[in-house]
Every structure is written in C-alpha cells, then in structure tokens.
Amino acid sequence: MMDLMHFDGFEPAYPDFFERPKPLPRATLREEPDAFIVAADVNGMRKEDLKVIVYPDSVSIRGLTHRKESRDFEDSTFSAAYLEEFKRVIPFPEEVNPDLAISVFKDGKLELRVPKLSVSEKGGKLLRID
Description:
Elements: E1 3-7, E2 27-31, E3 35-41, E4 50-54, E5 58-72, E6 77-91, E7 102-106, E8 109-115
C-alpha cells in the first residue's frame, strides 16, 4: 500500500523566539482497504510514557518522559533533571472507528491499526441497483 502522509521530525513542536524547536517523532499514515496504519518512531520513550487518543477524524500521540542524572566528583556532585515532551496530531482522510483501534509498542516503534467506518456505521445504506 502507498503511504498517504509522512510527517518528518523537523516540524517545530512549540515555536519560541528564544528556544530552538524540538523535533517531533517521525510518523507515517498508510491506508489499507479497511483501516489506516499509523507508525511513529518514539525512541527513548517507554510505553508508560505514551498516551494515544483516537478520535473519529484524527489520532493524538503524546509522550512525556523524565530523566535524572547525577555524577559525583571529588568535592561536588552534579545533578540534573530532564523532561522530554511532545504532542503530534495526525488527521485521517476519512472517518474511523476509535472503539476498534489497536496499538503495538516494540523497540521504540508505535504502530496503530485504526479501522475505517463501514457504510452502515456511517449511517448510510448500500443500495442494490435493480
């Protein structure tokens, strides 16, 4: 199948005059006959750091991780805390069924399978032509 959209990691997350924009995780939206597949590279995150919300027209992927570092020197100690956060919203070209969406997280890769709505789920009826 062909990729519908590719979101590279260099869009600014929070543009600020005094701060360099942080790159967002790369994500790809692929269409299959009955579903959309979203693949995102979220290296450095654990599944506990991620929050995924699927809406009928989009998916929101958030990541938040904390890291602490401490080093002892002869007469002092260096301590630092780091916070990484991102939010990426990916629109779907057509309505999906959030209730049937599934996700898999492995080796820094998040993959979502989100089924499209069928004609009957959209409130329509497929007519037979006589």
